[in-house]
Amino acid sequence: MMSPTPVIAVFDVGKTNKKLFLFDQDYRIVYEKSARFTETVDEDGFACENLQSLRLSVFDSLSEIFRLKEFAVKAVNFSAYGASLVYLDETGQAIAPLYNYLKPYPEELSHELYANYGGELPFSTQTASPVLGSLNSGLQLYRIKHRQPALYQRIQYALHLPQYLSFLLSGLYYSDLTSIGCHTALWDFGNNRYHDWVNGEGLAVKLAPIAEADKALPALFPGNNYKVGIGLHDSSAALIPYLVNFHEPFILISTGTWCISLNPFNQSALTADELDKDCLFYIGYQGKHVKASRLFSGLEHEQQVKRIAAHFNQDAIKFRNMFFNPAVILKLKKQFPQMQKDVFAKASLFATRDLAAFEDDIEAYHQLMLDLVCLQVGSTGIILNDASVKRIFVDGGFSKNSIYMNLLAAAFPNMETFAASMAQASAVGAALSIHQEWNVKPIATDIIGLKYYAASGALVL
Fold first, then answer.
1. Which domains does the chain have, with CATH numbers?
2. % the chain with pLDDT above 90
3. Rg of the chain over all Cα atoms, to the nearest angstrom
4. Residues in domain Carbohydrate kinase FGGY N-terminal (predicted)?
């Protein structure tokens, strides 16, 4: 009889999809399962995560995989979306909803906080947190203190979602820098500690001790002798495979609904201008600052593809695998006014373009991608700020788009541009963060597949 395969289980909890993966020691997925839960509502009737369903799903899923004879689970870790806090009483029971980070925030309450601690701009710059209301999770706890004092008194600890999931298996309370350092308004990046307002308002006592991202805890939930990681914020977790595999400075453009440019090699202080351009800091799993800029390009692409498809009477699926035609790009550049690639904007010119001016849907789609890449160059340029960066990696949806990739390579002719393919980067990152706790093999060097895109000399953006 074959001996069971040593694996790590990773729960990857997104806002919509909840996934469980088992990775073998070469970081190949050997088992996966996904679930979606119906949302519930908070006391104001606003939609929020069903925490009870999520908690039971973790226990049920683990019990199920522990019964599988072909796998030996050596460790469990978590990657999850940030900006959401779970409020626990002294017995470890959740005593409030997992409030939705999209819930409108009382304006007078945020005005009061900013006024008391130096004003909006200094506060936002020090905490590397644009003013985002409930998306600044520290402000969620502040709201409870001032609007629900009886609930606040009962809170023993407020844990970010990844650390709550870890607590379920270990029974131990910890905070984690990747969660604290993501637009929470809690962290003073200049002084590398909680911001003065956290202590000034007395919130620090509600925050669990900070643990290192590579810390592994003994398990309380029954099973074989496995370790439990403390969990990571999913954006920071997605960067880990790249940091592990590549040591020369690089930028990662993570594409999806949001297109986020991440530069883990730029620790320069955040300026007011950068903050205004939706630039912020994350904290990486090793505690280093990661400068990031964001665009809503994935959503814009989706909306404009529907417009093109409707106008030219085409199926939107056609545009998923459209070939790159440099001759079309050269024609468009001569025929239509183009956005300057180094000018920052939050939306492209394409929404204002008349589709009737294009010969066909191929021209229109190439122009859309040209506009989106010009937008991307402006956003990525904010965090570049370092001549030593010679590589750009693109993962997510646009990495599979040959028009996007060729145009991006043309826009950065002095850099090497790669489309990266890796199954479940956030989950792999969470597994890698505690590699030494469960895996006896050296870290595999082929976790990330790369496709190189050369900058065409004839096509300069």
1. 5-230 (3.30.420.40), 233-461 (3.30.420.40)
2. 77
3. 23
4. 8-189
